[in-house]
Write a structure and sequence with these properties.
It is a single chain. This protein is α+β, with helices and mostly antiparallel strands. It has one domain. Helix content is 32%, strand content 27%. The protein contains seven helices and five strands; from the N terminus they run αβαααααββαββ. A five-stranded antiparallel β-sheet has the order 2-3-1-4-5. Strand 2 and strand 3 form a beta hairpin. Helix 3 packs across helix 6. The longest helix has 11 residues. The two termini are 17 Å apart.
């Protein structure tokens, strides 16, 4: 049974992790592609839903205010200027911004693995970081999609999805 009240701190137990320790969250997804088509990257990214997974992560929760280099880069490059600040539709606006600027910025890593002259896989991933203090009381069940790594006094602790 899933404990929806369990936090990341509960899952880590007593590892004496300092609040300023950086926690890295990595999301990966793979799609089968026919790489001989010009638009295979766009098709794979759209069908995977990785844009919405990334958007959900950066517009809510501990990544919105902590270690959110993607929104910072969007702001620094005036990509959010057209958003009408009425508190509605921000998530969709950010998703559209990611989609429209997919090739100009490296928010989503992409690697094509070619199996033969037309078939292969597209590996897609993104990483977000935040201090342990920002994520330790977040519900752990929300991070089930990510591999999580954190430095502890005993070494690097890695949790796989």
């Amino acid at each position: 049974m899933v404990n929806f009240k369990e936090t990341i701190a509960d899952k880590l137990g007593d590892h004496n992790i300092p609040d300023e320790s950086e926690v890295t969250f990595r999301y990966e997804e793979t799609a089968s592609v026919q790489h001989h088509y010009d638009d295979y990257v766009n098709d794979a990214i759209e069908s995977s839903g990785i844009i919405y997974t990334l958007t959900d992560a950066i517009v809510d929760g501990p990544f919105y205010e902590n270690g959110n280099w993607i929104l910072e880069e969007m702001r620094d490059n005036d990509l959010l200027n057209d958003y009408e600040r009425d508190s509605s539709g921000f998530e969709e606006f950010v998703a559209d911004t990611i989609r429209d600027n997919l090739y100009e910025y490296e928010w989503i890593e992409r690697e094509t693995i070619r199996h033969d002259y037309k078939r292969g896989e597209l590996r897609m991933a993104f990483e977000l970081t935040a201090p342990f203090a920002a994520v330790k009381n977040s519900p752990a069940v929300g991070f089930g999609l990510y591999s999580i790594s954190i430095n502890t006094p005993a070494g690097v602790l890695i949790s796989m999805p």
